[in-house]
Amino acid sequence: MDRSQLASNTKELLVEAEGPVGVITLNRPAALNALNHSIMEAMVEALEDFERAPSIRSIVIAGSAKAFAAGADIKEMEKATVAEMSRDPHLSRWDRVGKCPKPLIAAVSGFALGGGCELAMACDLIVASETAVFGQPEIMIGVIPGAGGTQRLTRIVGKTLAMEMILAGRRLSARGALAHGLVNRVVPVESFLDEAKKLAHEIAAQPPIAVRMAKEAVLKALDMDLDTGLAFERKLFYSLFDTEDQKEGMRAFMEKRAARFIGK
After folding, report:
1. CATH fold of 208-254, please?
2. Domain limits, CATH 3.90.226.10, in the chain
3. Alpha carbons 105 and 126: distance in angstroms, whole number
4. How many CB atoms lie within 10 A of CB 148?
5. Is the pLDDT of residue 4 over 50?
6. Helices of type H across the chain
7. Structural class in CATH, domain 3-204
8. How many CA atoms lie within 13 A of 215 on its CB side?
9. Nearest-CA neighbor of 210 among 182, 181, 250, 254?
10. Strand 21-26 versus strand 67-69 pairing type
11. Whole-angstrom Cα distance, residue 60 to residue 249?
12. What is the mean predicted confidence (pLDDT) over 222-249?
């Protein structure tokens, strides 16, 4: 898959490859990047393209400086019935984002509310601008988060704060999100995307198989007891001694030079 195949822009989504980093940018400025069916479908397609591309080792999902994503598109759900919602694959697309085997970095500025906050949390790391605002305000329109908000937010910030955000609609500033472990770092608004790309390039420089296994092990830690998690980690650790990158990495360390990882 060449670079031209990895840069398939649509009206609502901009997709490009910057070396080993795939960049997906939400592009519905008039709607504050509200996550409608078409933009989420296009995002999943872009992710799957990047997943299949050996040259892509990490992925950034970004919005604009004003809004990462201000939520799902309410117009598409306002008159829906239970049967219609249960048949609709829309919410499962957030699950698909969360299952991406390659590292995902969310570059968040401005509003990350509702489905936008859930999309950011489906990523592995979040770089936030000083203007970022996170929240799950679904209760104010008569529903609850449906794309992972009650589950991921609670795991990240804890029960009490998650309850306040979900039951009362409390929002977190960028600094508040940093203090509660929701984001990795807070940077000036003019550099939030560059900082996310820089982090993505740092990860992309590491051995891809080890990165994938490390991500898998960290995510499994949320679902396993300690003994089971330790056994799972050990199994992955041992399996990496069958890779060329392990041999190269340790040889380079001994020879005091930079390693050249090839993903094998």
Report:
1. Lyase 2-enoyl-coa Hydratase; Chain  A, domain 2 (1.10.12)
2. 3-204
3. 6
4. 21
5. no
6. 37-52, 82-87, 92-98, 115-122, 149-157, 159-168, 174-179, 192-204, 208-220, 226-239, 244-254
7. alpha beta
8. 23
9. 250
10. unpaired
11. 26
12. 96
Query: Which has the closest alpha carbon to 215: 93, 126, 124, 152?
Result: 124
Q: Is 81 exposed, middle or buried (0-12, 13-18, 19+ CB in 10 A)?
A: exposed
Tokens 């892509």, located at residue: 56
Tell me what pLDDT residue 2 has: 47
Residue type at position 83: A
Where in the chain are all domains bearing CATH 1.10.12.10? 208-254
Exposed / middle / buried, residue 252 (Cβ in 10 Å: 0-12, 13-18, 19+): middle
**Residues belonging to the active site:** 72, 115, 118, 138
Residues composing the chain = 264
Place of tokens 């570059």: 107
Phi–psi pair at 244, nearest 5 degrees? -65, -30
- Residues with Cβ within 8 Å of 141's Cβ and at least 6 positions away in sequence, in order, are 74
- The token duo for 80 is 């829906």
Measured CA to CA, the distance from residue 24 to residue 10 in angstroms comes to 11
Q: What is the pLDDT of residues 74-128, one digit of tens each?
A: 887 778 788 887 887 888 899 999 999 999 999 999 999 999 999 999 999 999 9
Distances (CA, A) of 197 to 3, 59, 127, 226: 17, 8, 9, 33
Q: With a cut of 50, say whether residue 9 has pLDDT above it.
A: yes
Please report where in the chains the tokens 């050996």 appear, as a residue.
54
* Residue whose tokens read 């400025």: 29
CA distance 102 to 225: 24
CA angle (71 as vertex; 188, 158 as ends), nearest 5: 75
